Amino acid sequence: MSVATPMAISFAAPAGLLALLAIPLAILALTASRRRATRYAVRFPAAATLAIAAGTVPAWRRFVPTGLALAAMAALAVALAKPQHTVAVPVEGASVVLVTDHSGSMAATDVEPDRLSAAQQAATTFLGQLPAATRVGVVTYSDGPDGTRTPTLDRDVIKQTLEAQTAAGATATGEALQVALGALAPNGRAAARPVSAIVLLSDGKTTSGRDPVEVARTAKRLKIPIYTVALGTADATIPNPVSPLSPPIAVPPDPETLKQIADISGGRSFTSDDAGQLRGIYRTLGSRLATKHQEREITSSFAIGGLILLVAAGLLSLPRVGRLP
Questions:
Q1: Residue 20: which domain range?
Q2: Which spans in 81-172 are helix H?
Q3: pTM of the full structure
Q4: Which of 79, 136, 231, 298 is deepest in the core (most CB within 10 A)?
């Protein structure tokens, strides 16, 4: 799948737009010529008879050619300015690693049908938005990283790893991020390479392993941004695993830490408390990551359009078949 969405139009030679000033001048000249023709019109008593003999000309036949000619002038003037638009194109060889939390708190149902299922569905959306040439890896974790795939073009392998998750255990976000960094920068050094990024989804505070904020500093040194998504609502709970009669356990997300991770590494942070919103975030990330913006000239489109309009104006202004002898 290739991403090539036009975003904005700019001009390489904006001075060419000055040619648009010829349009109002042409309108003024046309208006003046018609007034002059009316002023010097000669009254002819047999005009009605001649009109019947020559036939009537529809009103649109008098105005449409002029309109087309003016439109042609506008298109050709824009062509002189060398218009170009910005498109997002895939970066060949780019790699992205999904880091997904499946700790026990991901069983919470504050996000329908539950946090983990919503995360899996959103990840599938993300994969569908990435360019086909982008390599994707995955690190799933709870007490520690337990499902790891190095970046690959095989989307099915990634989907299988994501679907194999079950909600259980603690939250070792720092350990998972370190494994993801190792997959993107095996030598531990920043190097000239295609775009690399990490997308982290978690719903809770780190409860075991290394500090994820320190890993984010390493990611900054390696020039690998981390995009974070905090999933869940502040009042979410899960049943107490010790006893169903015990009070439920609160499992609020930790957007503050995730934002700190994103800011330090050079990425962006998002929050979501709704499955649809989460898919939207992943869709946006999928369309933005592993792409770059390029300027592409579209002068020929305006030039061809202007010539077509000019030819149409000429054809419609030709005299009708059938004249007075």
A1: 6-38+48-85+296-316
A2: 115-129, 155-163
A3: 0.67
A4: 231
